[in-house]
Amino acid sequence: MSDLKSWPEPVVRVQSLSESGLRAIPKRYVKPPSDRPAFTNKTENQQHVDIPVIDLKNLFSKDPTLHEETLGFISTACKEWGFFQAVNHGVSHELMERTREVWRQFFNMPLELKQEYANSPTTYEGYGSRLGVQKGASLDWSDYFFLHYLPVSLRNQSKWPSHPSSCRELLSEYGAEVVKLGGRLLKAMSTNLGLKEDYLQNAFGGEDIGACLRVNFYPKCPQPDLTLGLSSHSDPGGMTFLLPDHDVAGLQVRKNGNWLTVNPIPNAFIVNVGDQIQVLSNMIYKSVEHRVIVNSVKDRVSLAFFYNPKSDLLIEPAKELVSEDRPALYTPMTFDEYRLYIRTKGPSGKSQVESLGST
Ligand code: OGA
Ligand code: NI
To answer: Where are the alpha helices (H) located in 87-166, listed in sequence order?
Structure first.
């Protein structure tokens, strides 16, 4: 494994490339034909299919019928899609919008100011432009900002942007609300899997969960049909809460071999199951592959909040979900160990979780 101390090559900011006005993208960003977004390949069918939309209003309703109905929707979405859009999720819409806008302003600041936060592959915290440290690797058309929210011992506000001035405060508030939502969904998933209500939360470390934010910035691209904003991957962590751009689509989810473009619903979160929940559920729930396409007209900002297990706990299939007929499909591993893979190799479909198979 290459060492994770520094990037193998000088880092190029995609935003600077985009703003330089070049007509053709550098070769490093050109994907092999099989990975390119097949714009011409959209069938009638695909355009009308979308991930489920779930209203969480009744998740904790006193009325058992309404409560169970909502649990049922979540169950189907987790089993069949690994993805859903959540509305009435309890997080303030105004807070969501302000947080996203503050990050848009961050990326619109002059390059020198952002460079103060330039990251390294040791922790990934800060302003970055690549995932993975393999020299000569294919690159994605995006920049990002990555930070730790939990545990508090890893939360280092001096690594969060000091400008715009409201950024740190908004982030603290935003994170607290999303963490609350994460706890509610873990309960719902535990119940749906036939586990004790607090099973998954405990497996994640109880109060000591990990949480990180990755803010993605996808600049306009002169040749969007040749590249990707983010290559196909499944999220390595527990569960992801994506706040997409309010008016530009880009996220695609893999379903039956096709790539479906998600149409974001205003004020919704796009929620998806990560690899750790796939492992804990012994593959009853699957972390589904997704990727991001870019366009030539508008840049796009998204906030991916990762709700993760405490990083040094062993994660393995719940004993209750292992039987003679369905043996444990994965060997135990800590999340710290697990996430080194994507941090070294970059996004590579579902190859990691598939390599964990215990047989
Ligand atoms: C991610 C991710 C999707 C998007 O950051 O892991 O999948 O739409 N982002 O930005
Ligand atoms: Ni993702």
So the answer is: 93-107, 111-115
- Residue 45: phi and psi, rounded to 5, are -55, -50
pLDDT digits (tens, 9 = 90+) for 261-312: 999 999 999 999 999 999 999 999 999 999 999 999 999 999 999 999 999 9
- Give which of 172, 151, 147, 173 is closest to 160, Cα–Cα: 147
User: Residue 251: CB within 6 Å of ligand 1?
Assistant: yes
pLDDT of residue 354: 86
Whose Cα sits closest to atom 2 in ligand 1?
Answer: 304
CA 178 – CA 100 distance, rounded (Å): 14
- How remote is the CA of residue 131 from the centroid of ligand 1, in Å? 12
User: Is residue 271 a contact partner of residue 82, using CB atoms and an 8 Å limit?
Assistant: no
pLDDT score, position 111: 96
* 183 within 8 A of 211, measured Cβ to Cβ: no
CB neighbour class for 354 (10 Å; exposed up to 12, middle 13-18, buried from 19): exposed
Tokens of 273: 């199951």
pTM equals 0.96
DSSP 127: E
